Amino acid sequence: MKDAADASQSFAVAQDAFLKTLAEKSNGGVLRGDYSRADAQYVVAQDWSAYTPSQHALWRRLYARQAALLPGRACQAFIDNLDRMQAADGIPDFVTTSKALLAATGWTLVAVPGLVPDQTFFEHLAARRFPVTVWLRAPEEFDYIVEPDVFHDFFGHVPLLFDPVFADHLEEYGKGGLKAMALGGLPFLARLYWYTIEFGLIDTSEGLRAYGAGILSSGGEITYCLSSPMPRRIPFDVARVMRTLYKIDSYQETYFVIRSFEQLFRDTAPDFTPLYARLQGLASLPADRLSEGECNIPIR
Ligand SMILES: [Fe+2]
Fold first, then answer.
1. Which is nearest to 123 in space by CA: 178, 193, 57?
2. Cα dihedral sign for 248, 290, 157, 238?
3. Which of 135, 157, 205, 272 is most exposed, with minimal Cβ within 10 Å?
4. Cβ proximity of 223 and 69 under 8 Å
5. Which residues surround ligand 1, an ion (CB under 5 A)?
């Protein structure tokens, strides 16, 4: 019993420190989620019956607006897998989606109160569990939200979990994250996640398309990233991505373009230990300019 009490006390201390760090980073120092019922892996019950009719209605509006923007902008795998989520009619029940996902690629969804510590996040991914925030934004946040909510996490991330190559890649990313923690590689790996899983573009025979969840769940960036002359669009290169800074409160200044999920999987498969060591001696690169010899990929 004493061991259990010690473990629960040390979790409470670690959770407190994590929440304090997040609160310092967030606007106004207040986090939206209720972390008081989270277990040691930051998992909570989704409590699907507690969503109100107006929250389901807001979800339907978000879903319909975003789904209408996908043709010609989202990669085909995302569009093809959207219907498998069966989530157009209201905030989905994660248990139902998890059953379909488990059958398709062996992944499940876990409900979380919001952002979770890096290590916890990586442990979930490494075990093919994707953490999805339970709360939905307010109506006045229809176009923009600071912290990821259930719409971003679910609509943006879940469709590609049905894609076998992407699903394998995300598991490997989780394993790589746990390794990076011991190697001082976290800032580099965070940039890789940002510029691929969240804001990645893919070159296809039909033209550039988005596969990043941050783009695909955004009503504005989904058109901006593919048609604005402002941002740079350059070929994906692991070392270049890992050196590039990013901003979390504006549209991206640079997008990195992969040729296929196979390329992403292959290029991020090697052991990053020597790369982290090399990058630690190099300056970071700003996102608002090309490096010498780089060219923009033309918009098609
Ligand atoms: Fe995300």
1. 178
2. negative
3. 205
4. yes
5. 213
Residues with Cβ within 8 Å of residue 203, at least 6 apart in sequence: 257, 258, 259, 297
Quote the CA–CA distance of 148 and 153 in Å, as a whole number.
7
pTM score over 0.85: yes
- Element containing residue 107 per DSSP (H, E): none
Compute the distance from residue 147 Cα to the ligand 1 centre, in Å: 9
Tell me how far the alpha carbon of residue 292 lies from the centroid of ligand 1, in angstroms.
Answer: 31
Q: Which of 222, 220, 170, 158 is nearest to 196 (CA)?
A: 170
170-201 confidence digits (pLDDT tens) = 999 999 999 999 898 999 999 999 999 999 99
For the chain, how many residues are written? 300
The architecture CATH gives domain 32-279: Orthogonal Bundle (1.10)
Residue 110, classed as helix, strand or coil, is: strand
Query: SS3 of 162, please?
Result: coil
For residue 178, the surrounding DSSP H or E stretch is: helix 164-183
| Amino acid sitting at position 101 | L
